[in-house]
Write a structure and sequence with these properties.
14 helices; Lysin; Elongation Factor Tu (Ef-tu), domain 3; Rossmann fold; 3 domains; ATP synthase subunit alpha; CF(1)
Length: about 500
């Protein structure tokens, strides 16, 4: 007996090929069968047109006679537009095409930890086939309101400016926005590295990037021990447009599987500007009506449908969370572009990287005044929230006062003190790449700064003092639950040591 592979092609298979065969034989019935057979009309640029499939539906999966797959992307009166999922050189005009009546699915499960896969779940790292996986449909509805919970738990990024002033909560969607080359991806990588030991499963989606950049990201995560809890979904620049379009949805499906199993997950989309351009390319090739900047009219709903799947589930629904950090590119610092404004309106806040700060040598180049976290403060630890609130006000006042120093005007003593404290704070915010810091250190320097312990420290010594504080905390760990008085007592002793003996 010859079994037609189309009956289960690309669907949700059982545990093994033998199980699929046994299941097929058990359910087999001898009867007349009717099937639709389409015909390939034209193919090129990653898309194809097919005639003769009246039952085709959007996002439906079909298979050609040579075994290659495609996804229905456009429905016309007399033909169907599809995006190719397999790069086959055998596709020619007139080749038969068949509907599978299956949903495109993605592998899920713990066996994906430490693996690099493509948007269809095929391994790219040479470590062998995936074992003990589950299959989950890529197209999923976002959880309804009744299944969601408030954002209550903090997700620490290890970046001082973010964890104190722009906090991120588990289940939040926080946008990383800025021009190319300002360190958006570096921030995302630092955030993934900081999850080591915090029981957060990470998914990093790389869309349309060069192979050298992809390898660099993978090696960085591997060197820092982050691949043990991270899955990387790759659709490189040379991949078919359909694969690049599917990449964020496939990554979201992996993270969603862990979320519904009760785990905390973090997903990075690097980046959605490229994804929008890929979707525009496919839509124009399929002759859809262009809108603003030639993007199709539904580009907003595409990203909204993706990001709305990130949330915090209620305990009754599993209690898992999915935190999303989408990355978007601006041009010349213009956040009023079409795609950036769309994503700003969908997400719960944005972290804006400024080119002028980057050029001035401030790393990370986060513009505090134009960055915001709308719901992250609800998840922030209460002591950190109280200390950061006082400090943020001082910093924003400093940014306004610093403008006057450019004119060489003579300032009052109080203004000079405020400017000096602001410059010290800006030095504190400097942070080396691939050096995420523990939250206890954030608490330490916040209390030290608000208590005036940094006031007598020279600007050139601030970084060394921060390193010394970190070493002191490693020798004498202090919990966030300790009282402020206990924290201040320890910090005063440490700073007295610095003043008396100098910075180590």
């Amino acid at each position: 007996m010859v079994i037609d592979p189309r009956t289960k092609y690309g669907g949700e298979p059982e545990n093994s090929p033998l199980d699929r065969l046994e299941g097929y034989l058990r359910s087999y019935q001898f009867r007349m069968r009717f099937t639709e057979q389409g015909q390939l009309v034209s193919v090129g640029d990653g898309i194809a047109w097919i005639s003769g499939l009246p039952s085709a539906r959007m996002n439906g999966l079909l298979v050609f006679a040579d075994g290659s797959r495609a996804m229905v992307f456009d429905l016309a009166i007399d033909r169907v537009g599809v995006v190719l999922l397999d790069d086959s050189q055998a596709l020619t005009s007139g080749m038969p095409a068949f509907l599978t009546h299956e949903r495109l699915s993605m592998v899920c499960g713990d066996s994906l930890k430490g693996r690099v896969v493509d948007p269809l779940g095929r391994p790219l790292d040479g470590l062998g086939e995936l074992r003990e996986v589950r299959w989950r449909a890529i197209e999923q509805k976002s959880p309804p309101i009744i299944q969601r919970d408030f954002v209550r738990k903090p997700l620490y990024t290890g970046v001082k400016a973010i964890d104190t002033l722009i906090p991120v909560g588990k289940g939040q969607r926080q946008l990383l926005i800025g021009d190319e080359g300002l360190g958006r991806s570096s921030l995302a990588v630092d955030c993934v590295i900081n999850q080591r030991g915090l029981d957060v499963q990470c998914v990093y989606v790389l869309i349309g990037q060069k192979r050298s950049s992809i390898i660099s990201t993978i090696n960085t995560l591997r060197r820092n021990g982050a691949m043990d809890y991270t899955t990387i979904v790759v659709a490189e620049a040379s991949a078919l447009p359909g694969m690049q379009y599917l990449a964020p949805f496939s990554g979201c499906t992996i993270a969603e599987g862990w979320m519904h199993a009760g785990c905390d997950t973090l997903i990075i989309y690097d980046d959605l500007s490229t994804h929008a351009k890929i979707y525009r390319e496919l839509s124009l090739l399929l002759r859809r009506h262009p809108g603003r900047e030639a993007y199709p009219g539904d580009i907003f709903s595409i990203h909204a449908r993706l990001l709305e799947r990130s949330t915090a589930l209620a305990v009754e629904s599993g209690g898992g969370t999915m935190t999303a950090l989408p990355i978007v590119e601006t041009e010349q610092g213009d956040i009023a572009g079409f795609i950036p404004t769309n994503l700003i309106s969908i997400t719960d806040g944005q972290i804006y990287l400024d080119g002028n700060l980057f050029s001035a040598g401030y790393r990370p180049a986060i513009d505090i005044a134009r960055s915001v976290s709308r719901i992250g403060g609800q998840a922030q630890h209460q002591q950190i929230k109280a200390e950061a609130g006082r400090m943020k006000l001082d910093y924003l006042q400093f940014l306004e006062l610093e403008v006057f120093t450019r004119f060489g005007t003579r300032l009052e003593a109080s203004m000079e003190k405020a400017i000096r404290r602001g410059r010290i704070l800006r030095e504190i915010f400097k942070q080396e790449q691939l050096n995420p810091l523990p939250v206890e250190l954030q608490m330490a320097w916040l209390i030290a700064y608000n208590s005036g312990l940094f006031d007598n420290i020279e600007l050139s010594e601030v970084v060394k003092v921060m390193h010394h504080l970190q070493q002191c905390l490693q020798k004498d760990p202090t919990s966030l639950e300790e009282s402020r008085e206990r924290w201040l007592e320890k910090l005063s002793n440490w700073f007295d040591e610095i003043v008396s003996t100098g910075v180590p």
